[in-house]
Amino acid sequence: MPAGDPPLTLRDLEAIPVSRLRGVGEKKGSALASAEIATVLDLLTHYPRRHLDRTREASIGELRAGDEATVFGEVRSSSTRQLKGKRTLTNVVIGDGGNQLTLTFFNQRWRDKQLTPGMTVLVHGKCEIYRGQRQMTGPIVDLVGNQTGRIVPVYPQSEKSGLLTRDLAAFVEEALARCRSRGFDDPVPTAVLERFGFVDRAAAIHGIHQPETLTEKDEARRRLVFDELLRVQLELVRRKRRIERETAGIVHRTEGELTNRFVERLPFPLTRAQQRAIDEINGDLVLGRPMHRLLQGDVGSGKTLVAVHLLLVAVQGGHQGALMAPTEVLAEQHHAGVAAMLGDLSVSDPATLMGDRPLRIELLTNRVGVAERRKILADLVQGKVDIVIGTHALIQDKVEFAALGAVVIDEQHRFGVEQRAALRDKGDAVTAPDVLVMTATPIPRTAAMTVYGDLDVSTLDELPPGRTPILTEWARDDAGEEAVWAAVRAAVADGRQAYVVCPLIDESEALDVRSAEETFSVLQTSELAGVRLGLLHGRVTPAEKDEVMGSFRRGELDVLVATTVIEVGVDVANATVMVILDADRFGIAQLHQLRGRVGRGEYASRCFLVGDPATADGEARLEAIVSSTDGFELAEVDLELRGEGTIMGDRQKGRNDLKLASLRRDKEWVTAAREVAIEIVDVDEELDAHPGLADELDLLLGDDDAEYLMKD
Ligand code: ADP
Ligand code: MG
Description:
By secondary structure, the chain is α/β, with parallel strands linked by helices. The protein has 25 helices and 25 strands. The protein has a 7-stranded parallel β-sheet with strand order 14-15-11-16-18-10-19, with helices on both faces. Strands 20-25-24-21-23-22 form a 6-stranded parallel β-sheet, sandwiched between helices. The chain has a 5-stranded mixed β-barrel with strand order 2-3-4-6-5. Strand 24 (575-580), helix 19 and strand 25 (606-610) form a beta-alpha-beta unit. Helix 20 runs antiparallel to helix 21 (631-642). The radius of gyration is 31 Å and the shape is globular. It starts with 9 loop residues before the first helix and ends with a helix.
């Protein structure tokens, strides 16, 4: 690479195969390939997993029996002994100053050759004292090479590829040396770097791989994290703007008799959060571009009302509204609830004698009979149906609207971007309906900015007043479980009702059903003998289901034993006890949803988690549910426990550009990157003035990645 050429862009780095580096022969080349490192760009973005400060790591002399630690040492000697049978024992002695540690390996004779005297190694393991000597059995060993710096980067190792930190550090060193004369291009505007006090890109690439101090490494990381997040946000903001520009929306009339009457008749005032969300939505509705908004709110925060308000805005302007729910149960529940709320309202209709007619709300699911369905479809096309509520059935080709004005998608389990788009496309050819996506599984704001980057976000962060908080208890042994059933019997004796949820086993519906059936029959003859029990699971026929739900609602059953089919939509105010069996098998969001099935009326409610978790994560989940009823707080814990995989989907590592950035650790940078992306895109949507950034988006966020970011 001759000097005088312009600084290297990421695309330039992508064009240099690692095989051009000295020391990368066939063997190392294929090891690199198996770690998906084919180019110098891959190599330089294969970041250290962690950085060790030599001066701060434990030294061998400090190790006590039982300590699990990482220590540096120099190999002093090694030897292998033959044991009985074909077994071998290799002892490698390492030391620092006057202290020694013996590493023992069984059947790893190759360690003799790998660990030769004089070499510096980093070992991680548990220290034992054996015959008065410090020893580690089968430790993790990394060869860090002859690194003399205070800070040692440790690269992700994979047993399979056999790449050691030593190799990677040497390749990186050579790559950096060869890039030195040209330097690295920095496409991020200087003003942005100055505003956040970022180091330039060259310093960042050097600083992450070869820092002199931990501060230097931190600064490097911060800069690289920002770059990753900025690229993602630029892509998302550009898409959002493009959709806004390319599609015309309906200019709705947000003030009108229908919405006024609806709000007046509510038996309670709107919460401040509901009012704020309605205002935000109305702000979008009067614009000539379609709304694209996410409504986040905890279980019971009153999202439905906000959604219904939106549908009524559409209807009072002569349009139609649609609400799509993820399951039939939920669609039916919404339909019943909305019909009860709006049933006696009327809409103006000049074609009738009185100048108006009753508001018409229909349900459209696959369970609606053929004849009825045909009629609903015909009436939808003619504009005789004002609001239609349904499942996926709504996005089938046969469904056409006279004038679809607003769409609400209850994305309990996330429909994904295509389905959202499919319903949006049911508007007429000229104007797109306004879309509100509701989710009861809130995700932290910064995560929403990434996962739902194409949507604006409204948040209901307040519950309606007068709710008695749900008391959550955890029963982890037999005595605890006894107490749970006693509490259920006591509630029933008081005239209240309860749910008993059986866990999902193995993703198999058949097994789920069996577990529910078994629990039902056991309870019937033991702890809950004499109590009126009902059973509900995914295999009962719709008619049976309606009957069971109806009986429970009418109070003819005391306890409903069910699978997670009741996770969404069941709303019985008299039910005050939720028992979740094998609770550790559920995720945080699901537990929180299930708990949200009680606490819906005037009575104090309780939720019992029954389970003795086998894992630390299971334990942490149940602890979180016991200690908080705040869905947003729980979402943070969930993100903490499960990592971004939960919301980003766990796609195999491919070209996903978020290599360093963590949506939970780097929240402030998500926000900063979004701000900067908006600033840039608002004045330069095509990034004409930022060709370097445009090129990086093109290189790193191919269409696949961008699509992916917008899906679950
Ligand atoms: P979500 O869909 O967010 O879980 P819902 O819309 O089902 O919540 O509302 C839960 C309950 O709260 C419903 O019974 C509803 O009637 C009631 N509710 C909604 N808004 C209010 C309010 N502002 N004040 C009192 N109760 C409300
Ligand atoms: Mg509009």
